[in-house]
Design brief:
The N and C termini lie far apart (49 Å). The protein has helices at 13-24, 50-64, 74-90, 97-116, 162-166, 177-186, 208-212, 242-250; strands at residues 4-8, 28-35, 68-72, 121-123, 128-134, 139-145, 168-169, 221-225, 261-266, 289-295, 300-305, 313-320, 324-326, 338-344, 352-359, 362-372, 379-384, 387-393. The chain contains eight helices and 18 strands. The longest helix is centred in the N-terminal third of the chain and has 20 residues, at 97-116. Strands 5, 6, 12, 13, 14, 15, 16, 17 and 18 form a nine-stranded antiparallel sheet that branches. The chain is 24% helix and 28% strand. The chain folds into three domains: 4-200, Rossmann fold (3-Layer(aba) Sandwich), CATH 3.40.50.620; 221-312, no CATH class; 313-393, Translation factors (Elongation Factor Tu (Ef-tu), domain 3). The chain is globular and about 70 Å long. The protein is of the alpha/beta class and 395 residues long.
Length: 395
């Protein structure tokens, strides 16, 4: 009897082709469509609501002659993803809802719904790969980057566990996007020419301040410009010990309103993130102005002029011990261990050469080249070759 795979049919071309490939491989394929968001407040016109998505998913299911079920996970999605987003922005941090969506929804509550339908596996249209090593009694599941360098989505899966990976299939991970489009066209799938989704997972493209105003109210505050010569950018030359050096070089720069000059006002520090350029309305500068830091306690946004402003760059970052996650636990570092690795701190960023320093309080990651826009609340993911072995939330 063929193994059953429940595919998360989203109304996009990637999940559609994933379903077709699984049928070709002899699996019993079942489609399952998730409704995760109903509210349209803050979404931009032109973004596709779930009503359009499900129509396309139904057309694909009919074409492939597979059953399609629907499940409403909106309450869980709000609690585990959206409420987390609001809480993080309120603290002046920048979360990544797509990472949370995969960990908490697609490979958790959605997986449980799929198992109710008799699934042996769940499949998605992610551009990544899975390999298995070890023994039948003690398998190890490896999460690898997708073959398409322009579409690799392994970063978004950086918080998955071994148990979640054990049930996951990624049928298009060995393909490139043009090939996926070609198959969809040849098979006359309704999603063949549909544009890729953008914005927040299952919410769509949003006007972020308007979206956040559902829970985070506007509050007028100062925009303070920090000069490139600010003394706080000069890290000390001598340190008490190696851990002291790591802490100093990975710590965020700290500003007070007295360290710069007020150049404007904003409607809420929680609406801004490190490296942001839009929405500052700071005129009279030769170069663009970027957010260096936010302080939600004093409701202050700190900015600096120029792409190379020193406040935008740091040599390292820190991940608290409780926030370190190993996708592949066999590659776990021990306290006191140092290891060279490849790291990215945001989706699509080229992998950066770095060194791990695992200490009792957490992981210090020191980059060979200073990194622009290291942002509290985001995820750093680390790789060994093509394999994503772990990740953590940046402090």
């Amino acid at each position: 009897m063929a193994q059953c795979v429940v595919v998360g049919l989203s109304g996009g071309v990637d999940s559609s082709v994933a379903a077709w490939l699984l049928k070709q491989q002899g699996y019993e394929v079942v489609g399952l469509f998730m409704i995760n968001w109903h509210d349209t407040e803050g979404t931009l016109s032109g973004s596709c609501p779930w009503e359009e998505d499900i129509l396309l998913a139904r057309m694909v299911a009919r074409r492939l002659q597979i059953p399609l079920h629907t499940v409403d996970l909106s309450q869980t999605y709000r609690k585990r993803v959206v409420d987390y987003m609001f809480a993080e922005y309120a603290r002046g941090r920048t979360p990544n809802p797509d990472v949370l969506c995969n960990r908490e929804i697609k490979f958790d509550v959605f997986l449980k719904e799929a198992l109710k339908l008799g699934a042996d596996y769940v499949a998605t249209g992610h551009y990544c790969r899975k390999l298995v090593s070890g023994t039948e009694e003690n398998p190890v599941y490896h999460l690898l980057a997708g073959k398409d360098n322009n579409k690799d989505q392994s970063y978004f899966l950086c918080q998955l566990s071994q148990e979640q990976l054990s049930k996951a299939l990624f049928p298009i991970g060995d393909m490139v996007k043009p090939e996926v489009r070609r198959i969809a066209d040849e098979q006359q799938l309704a999603t063949a020419t549909r544009k890729d989704s953008q914005g927040i997972c299952f919410v769509g493209k949003v006007d972020l301040p308007v979206f956040l105003q559902q829970q985070l109210k506007p509050k007028k505050g100062d925009i303070v410009e920090i000069d490139a010569g600010f003394a706080g950018f000069n890290r000390p030359d001598t340190f008490a010990d190696e851990t002291d050096r790591l802490r100093a070089l990975s710590a965020p720069y700290v500003y007070t309103p007295h360290d710069g000059k007020v150049i404007g006002t904003h409607q809420g520090a929680h609406y801004y993130t490190v490296g942001q350029r839009k929405g500052l309305h700071a005129g009279g500068h030769k170069e663009p102005v970027f957010v260096l830091a936010t302080d939600t306690v004093t409701n202050t946004v700190y900015v600096g002029e120029g792409y190379r402003h020193p406040g935008l760059f740091r040599r390292g970052l820190f991940i608290p011990q409780a926030d370190i996650h190993w996708v592949n636990p066999t590659r776990r570092t021990a306290e006191g261990e140092t290891r060279r690795c490849l790291v990215r701190i945001r989706y699509r960023q080229p992998l950066q050469q770095a060194v791990f320093h695992h200490r009792p309080d957490g992981m210090y990651i020191m980059f060979d080249t200073p990194q622009r826009g290291i942002t509290p609340g985001q995820f750093a993911a680390w790789y060994e070759g093509d394999e994503l072995t772990g990740s953590g939330v940046i402090a």
